[in-house]
Amino acid sequence: MKNVKKFIQLIASLCICTSVSAQTKTPAFPEAQGFGAFTKGGRGGEVFIVTTTEDYGVNEPVIKGSFREAVEAAIPRMVVFEVSGIIELKRPLKIEHPYITIAGQTAPGDGICLKDYSFSVTADESIVRYLRVRLGDVHRLESDAIDIGSVVDNSGQLSDAPNSNVIVDHCSAGWATDEIFTIGTERGTVQWSIISECLYRSYHPKGAHSMGSVIRGSYGGVSILHNIYVHNNSRNPKLGSGEVSPGAVFDVRNNVFYNWGSTPGYSNSDEHVRINLVGNYYKSGPSTKMSRSTIAFHVGGILNSIHVADNYHSNNLEAAKDNWRLIRSADGKINKRNTPFPYPPMEKKTGKQIYEAVLNGAGAVLPARDPVDQRIINEIRTGKGAIINSQKDVGGWPVYNSTKAPVDKDRDGMADKWERTHGLKSTDPSDHKNDADKDGYTNLEEYVNGTNPNAATTSLQDYAEYKAALDEIEVLNVQGYIEAKAFEAARLKALQNVPEPKVEVSFSKLPDAKVKKLTVLLNDLVKIEMILVEAGTFMMGSPESEPGRFTDETQHEVTISKPYYLAVTELTTAQFGEVMESDENKGSKPAKASWFDAVKYTEVLSLHSGYKFRLPTEAEWEYACRAGTTTPNFT
């Protein structure tokens, strides 16, 4: 009971600090909605005008007027553009300092597109609007297109670093090699964006991938509103939280999902996850597996709770009468919630009602919708398109033309003509921070938002209703934390009652780069023959001329950077029993073991041998085959 009281006190103190010190009562922009709606961004900060599409590396001098200079600045800032085009990033680009607004809609011509490296947001109070991030496979990295609340190093690897008050609006992201979006924030919104075409057979070390979004949160809430998920194999989206936490509320509402492959959305097992799945539109496509063509979401475990309503599935019309027909779980048990979890209120619309509006309005539609998004929208309408392996499959990056930017002599981010039209001084470089109509938005915000600086702006999201939703979530957090702790305690107790398997592992020769073959003995009874596979580069996949192959197996170059020993051995009940102390009949038949059993099997071997055993990646397996390696029971 003492621990519970401490947790309640902690929540109370956090609520007070948040409401007093950080939370603004003016939305990020008039159309901002959801848990990230009241992000302050760079309001009142300095103006950074992007005048070049050039980028610079770690040891290169800062390029004045570059997008990187603006993003990496350590002061509150408003970022506007006087140029359009592709920005070829030389390394990952990170928002590490808070209070920033990126107004991609101000770019002249066709707008801005980032490529080659990931774009991440690790700072609080960040607004990102009308930006394209299409990663591509040029550098052969395992990487996301956009990461919110994650740290991306120069090799493209991620580590969690949850932030708060972030909103991404009208962005187009695609052609990543891991996920399109990784989101880990305590108060955030992704709205009116297109999450498309994550690459399938590309450079992910696990082989075929293509994932839409991983969205995680231990507290607060994340809103996924009016987006399009299209041509991603799985994780559309994947929802999860910390192992022992109340879990965030995930409000997945009024989105369009098209042509997932193996799985639409799902949630993690053994984690506290609270989901509203409301008013979405689902449409299977040419790449959708038949067995997954009528569902919308797969719920993980007993701590996953879900509310569903008003979803429409074009391949499961009966679900319109009973939305629970769209939900699946591994054991058939679903923790159903008849009322929604707390969320910032918005106009109620069904999946069928929002379809056209989302198709017409999602993505970086300002200053202009590009040919990639135009093609994708057309494929959704016509039921065509496919999950792709490379941006080359669909023509790659288009040309983005730039036109002459409006004259802005005082360099305050606002066009001189617009200032004169609205009674502002086009010769005053400081008036961008003023708020002529006292509605909470600065003059520069009125300019980038397309609103009148002399007439108070009406916003979609009401602060009182937003705050009430957060307060309700804090109350739920207390019970959620108790449930999560109880579940974790039960899990640990169950593990304590299971004896750790004991096995004696010995080697005919110690693993060494000079040893080409070795035998692993388990309890002096079971033999596993292993062959050394040297590091190298090979063409993964199949050439077009090879008969009987699918188009998603097209060849691409993959490098195996380290040598490894490989064995192909049939996991018999005898072998499984020796290692796992199974009670099954120890005959020669294959063991009835799941993938997770096989993983545990390798972990036990690692524990008792002092060497790392694991299952091979798809690339390691195919490389060994194509290198001509022969091992026992190779099939």
Brief sketch in words of this structure:
The protein is α/β, with parallel strands linked by helices and 635 residues long. Helices cover 20% and strands 23% of the residues.
Question: Can you give a write-up of this model?
Answer:
It comes from marine metagenome. This is Sulfatase-modifying factor enzyme-like domain-containing protein. Residues 1-22, 151-160, 546-553, 583-588 and 628-635 have low confidence and may be disordered. With 635 residues, the protein is an alpha/beta fold. Helices cover 20% and strands 23% of the residues. The strands form six sheets. An eleven-stranded parallel sheet has the order 1-2-5-8-13-16-19-22-25-28-31. The protein contains ten helices and 37 strands. It has two domains: 2-396, Pectate Lyase C-like; 505-626, paralog of FGE (formylglycine-generating enzyme) (Alpha-Beta Complex). The protein is globular and about 90 Å long.
Round the mean pLDDT to the nearest integer and report it: 85
The percentage helix is 10-25%
- Which value, in Å, is the CA radius of gyration? 27 Å
Low-confidence stretches: 1-22, 151-160, 546-553, 583-588, 628-635
Q: How many domains, in number, for the residues?
A: 2
Question: CATH topology of the largest domain, what is it called?
Answer: Pectate Lyase C-like
Q: Architecture of the largest domain in CATH?
A: 3 Solenoid
- Name the shape in a single word: globular
User: Distance N terminus to C terminus?
Assistant: 58 Å
Number of strands: 37
Sheet of most strands: 11 strands, parallel
Cross-sheet strand order for the largest sheet = 1-2-5-8-13-16-19-22-25-28-31
